[in-house]
Structure formats: structure tokens, C-alpha cells
């Protein structure tokens, strides 16, 4: 296999241009629309009883809020119990620190190849890029991740990374990139090709890396949800297993996992239950015949404590990474994940990414929403995404202030635009000013500019009517 192409995430400033390119591509629009309709239909079939769904969503919300309220305490308990079980715990504040820890473990074992189960946090820290720079191979073993890695791309969806590709595109990719493989667009044959390549890599790998869906504090257990078996292979075949996750993935008790697990699988892929559910509580014991001899857990902050410090923004951390909000979003369904330029696209990405990257780099993302509310309605743990988007817009476009709640607060502030809105508010608060403004607008509507910023980029110019409503009413009376 050819070495993966280095590709950093794109700056969000180019969001509009990338979005426009996708919207103008009818093939991509059709592909995304079909995929999203398929996923939303599968999810709907899993929740035929509306009352049961709402009851389960409420339970999921309460479990997440309960555990987040105790997060500092639970993290300490998790570390104690993991250490007791023989798992080494590492703390990372930034992506650079996380990469340094992971690559340090690799170098300590003279590792040449790391095989990875699906991990969005490893995408978040751009581990593949860091590993390549350090001369260590990092191979994705999730089929979707493997496909986008071969293509030199980033995942376009947090659950289905290659959802933007057709089987014909994948067939051409395999024929070009995998030695000795002839073109075939038979899906079963393509899967077998991927399995054959990856199975050999599991045996050769020095390090296995995975994400974590739930970390149980009371037992010191790491839970991993998957469908392909690659997660189990990555965590058991190589001699060293490294798990990496955000600090918010913790739950206090084992009994908290089943409701969240049910919500995750049914919301993400429309399954009652995933094919595999892995529970890892330590390295191989002397009497055991398989499993890694070392297990490490890297707990990453990367802006999460910033969100945690604010009562409203803390709700962002309730996310269980199911992708349902993306599947139901009218914006994401038309432009896909790559347009956002960030690890986490769609509605959840628009409220998570500002904490990770700062509002300077993500100021435009919270505005890329119709605020239709679909994301909040389908979120399995009831994250009020529309409310959080409005809060982020306020943080981004309000005047910079001392001790802001978010890094980059005021990044989108424009004094001229702010003055215009203050004038607008003053006019609408005063009946006299309002009547004067509408009289002037109707009499001098010929002076209306033809270009009106972002409005006229996709719409006709706003132009006052030649007569006000009050004038028409007077004439009729």
C-alpha cells in the first residue's frame, strides 16, 4: 500500500467556497441526499414508539448530565481503578501533548507500524500526520477510514467516514493503490480485499490504537462499540494497546452504559445493537493466552474544560458521537463533511470545534445553520444544539470583553455592522423613528443599493415598497 498522503484540516474561513463547490456538484448532492435519507429512515424504524423514544432520550440526558456534574471526581476514580487494573493513564491538555505521549510510547517499543481502530479523537489530534513525521506508519483498519486514508482525504462523517464515495470510486482507488488488485466494483469483493490487506497488518503491527466510547470509573473499564471487528483486532493482536479519548466520555457506573449504548447504535446506524461491544479492563494476565502486554489510556482535554466551565456550554460535552444531528441537518445533507474543514462537521461540529480551535478559526461555522431545530429534536441525549449555536454566534460577533467564556470571543466583531444593528434596534423601539424610517425608505427606494453583502450573494436585493402599509390602509379608508 502506498504511504498515506499528509493532509491537514482546512481552515474554516474557506467554508463558503467549499460549500459552494459541493452545492454546484449535482452528483455529490444526490449522493449525500440519498445517504442521509437512508440513515434517517433506519433511525426512524428503530424508534416507532414516540413515548419510548422520549423516555429513553430523557434518561440519556440525565445520565450524561449526572456524570458531567461529577467529572473531576470521576476522572480521579477512573485513573485509580485503571491503574489498579494495570492500565497506564496519561493526561494531555493539547493535541501536541497527546501526540507526544503516543509517539513516546511507540518509540519506547521501537515501533514501526501502528494499526488503528476507529478513533475520531486521533483524527482530532491529527495523529497520522504526527506519526508519519516521526517515521512511524499509522494504518487505519476501519474500512471507511482505510478508504479515505488511501484517497488522501479526511473522514466526511463521524460514523461513516467514506459516505461521500461510490463503489465505483472505491473500486478505482483499490485498483490504483493496492498492489496486485484488479478493478472490481463488487462490494463483497472490495470488502474482502480490504480485509486481506488489514489482517496481515494486524499481525505485523507493534502498536494497536483505538478510541473509547465509554470509560467506566467504578470498574476501570474501557468500552468500545464497533461493527467490523477491527477494534477487537487492534486492541488484542498487537503487543501494546493505546486508547485515546476525550475526558468527557466517562460514566460512573456500569449500569449507565446500556441506555447510552442503545441510544448510540439506534441513532447512529439504525441498529438494535452493534456487532461487537468490547470491554477492556487491563493488559494480558500471566494465565491468559492472548491480548496486549501493555495498555495505555490517553485522556485529552483540547478545549473541553473551557466548555465545562460554563453551565450552558457544558451541555456540548453530553455528545455520544452518534452523528444523528448530521444525518438530519438540511445544511450537512447538501454539502457533506469536508466543506466544514474541521474534524467534527455538521451541527455537533459547529458547537464542538470552537472550543477546540477557538472562535478565531471557527467564527463562520455557527452561522451555517437554518436553526430549523432538527438537530436538537433528534439528539439522543437532548443537547440543545440550536440554543448553543445562538450562544456561539453571540460570543463570536459581540464586542470583545475582559475574561471571556471562550477563546477568541469577539473574533467576528465588526464595529460598523454593530453600529448598524444598534441603529436598527433604536428605530424599532421608537414608533416615531420607525414611521420616519419607513417614510424615507418608501420615498427614496430608488437609492437602494444593488449589492447588499451576503444577502445578495444568493438572493435578490431588498427594496422598500413604493408605498407603506399604513399609506395603503389610509387610501382604502
Keywords:
48% helix, 10% strand, six-stranded parallel β-sheet, four-stranded mixed β-sheet, 22 helices, alpha/beta, disordered N terminus, Rossmann fold, 477 residues, globular, 2 domains
Rg, Cα atoms, Å: 25 Å
Number of helices: 22
- In whole angstroms, the N-to-C terminal distance is 81 Å
The chain-level mean pLDDT equals 92
Number of domains: 2
Largest sheet: 6 strands, parallel
* Number of separate strands: 10
Report the top-level CATH class of the largest domain.
Alpha Beta
- At CATH level 2, the architecture of the largest domain is 3-Layer(aba) Sandwich
Q: How much helix, percentage-wise, in residues?
A: 40-55%
Arrangement of strands in the largest sheet? 1-10-7-4-2-3
Strand residue content: 5-15%
Please identify the structural class as seen in this structure: alpha/beta
* Shape descriptor: globular
Spans of at least 5 consecutive residues whose pLDDT stays below 50 are 1-8
Instruction: Using the coordinates shown, work out and report the CATH topology of the largest domain.
Output: Rossmann fold
